[in-house]
UniProtKB/TrEMBL annotation:
This is Transposase. It comes from Falsiroseomonas bella. InterPro entries: IS402-like_dom (IPR025161), Transposase_6_like (IPR052909). Residues 19-90 form the Insertion element IS402-like domain.
Length: 191
């Protein structure tokens, strides 16, 4: 049985601004460095750089020099996508009871946009977690274009409408097969 899902809702847009001390105090415990690689000299500036890119439509190379090197910020975001940091941030920015209301409300849009910027690197479980948490702003496409790994529910919904003729059954099976992987070509990492 699937866990309960929250209704999809977009997070209100916010313009980029450097994090306040209160925002950084709420974010810092969730983004502690871990795993391979040298930790950032100034993690707050690194996350400001990540959020600047997330809020803009600009490529990484357009990152202002005052926020550091673009390749360092991009590498750090990819590392956080793999080590579970983005999962913790996704839950913290969601209406999930485990989010704890840690004061990340003002950072929610920036966090979800950062997740969207690395959506191609996320696992299927991470994308489906964003969908089940109702985080529309983190998804790279409309939810119906995401892969559908939970076919049992889909099959039970579609089987009653199964026609008896063989050509129709074949067309139905082809349509089902085409629907499973989603439509990755429709993904957009920025608006």
């Amino acid at each position: 049985m699937l866990p309960p899902a929250y209704p999809l809702r977009p997070t209100p847009r916010q313009p980029w601004s450097p994090m306040t001390d209160a925002e950084w105090a709420a974010l810092a415990p969730l983004v502690q460095p871990g795993g391979p690689g040298r930790p950032a000299a100034d993690p707050r500036r690194l996350w400001d750089a990540i959020f600047w890119i997330a809020c803009s439509r600009e490529p990484w190379r357009a990152l202002p020099e005052a926020l550091g090197r673009a390749d360092s910020a991009h590498r750090a975001l990819r590392r956080h996508a793999r080590n579970g940091t983005l999962d913790r941030l996704m839950i913290a920015a969601s209406p999930h009871p485990l989010s704890g209301g840690d004061g990340l409300e003002t950072l929610a849009w920036r966090i979800l946009r950062a997740i969207r910027r690395v959506a191609r690197l996320l696992t299927m479980a991470q994308l489906l977690m964003a969908k089940r948490l109702g985080l529309a702003s983190a998804l790279p496409c409309a939810p119906e274009h995401l892969p559908r790994p939970h076919l049992a529910a889909t099959l039970h919904r579609l089987i009653p409408s199964l026609p008896g003729a063989r050509p129709a059954l074949l067309r139905w099976m082809i349509a089902l097969h085409d629907a499973i992987p989603g439509e990755r070509r429709l993904w957009r990492l920025t608006d």
